[in-house]
Amino acid sequence: MRQYLLLTLGVFDLRAVLFLSVALLTFLYTGCASTSGNKADMVKADVARPQSLFLARLQQRTTAQTSELADGSIKVAFPGITAFSHDGARISDEQQSVLSSVVESLEHIEYQKLTVVGHTDSSGKLAYNNTLSQQRAEQVKAFLLQQGLTAERVTAEGRGPAEPVADNKTAQGRAANRRVELVLAF
After folding, report:
1. Which of 21, 40, 53, 76 has its CA 20 to 30 A from that of 104?
2. How far apart are alpha carbons 82 and 12 in whole angstroms?
3. Residue 35, helix vs strand vs coil
4. In the prediction, which pLDDT does 90 show?
5. Phi, psi of 43 (to 5 degrees)
6. 8 A C-beta contact, residue 129 and residue 160
7. What is the pTM assigned to this prediction?
8. What's the confidence (pLDDT) of residue 15?
9. In a 3-state reduction of DSSP, which class is residue 97?
């Protein structure tokens, strides 16, 4: 009986070893389990995209509002921040702080082009507002260059009062329309 028991255990152990060996080889050849379609892997792949990395960093540093445009570029807006005084092109301290956060968020990220878009409210003459919006964009561009961005990749564009985000009939609306936005192409 003892020999029969040992023989049975030996066969059992041999079967277990064979089964585990086959299972181990199967896992090694197939990669254990398929990870295609795994949400965590897709997030990791998405974060590897420069624009995704930029957005994640920016979100940690500031409350800037971002949106993806039809061409895949990213628009960065700064609602609630008084960027400029009425009839002025000097960047407010609050705007400078947020712009510094944008530059920090772009550190070691490849982007093709950053366009600074300046805006005005609708008070005053159109030609003057167009010039003022360009001056605002140029001031922000100069600030970004001082912070370390390269001149070859940064452009400035003034759009005057053509694209209001608030009602120009109120002081609060006019203040909101005196702004800059950044458009980043990756």
Report:
1. 40
2. 78
3. coil
4. 93
5. -65, -45
6. yes
7. 0.73
8. 57
9. helix
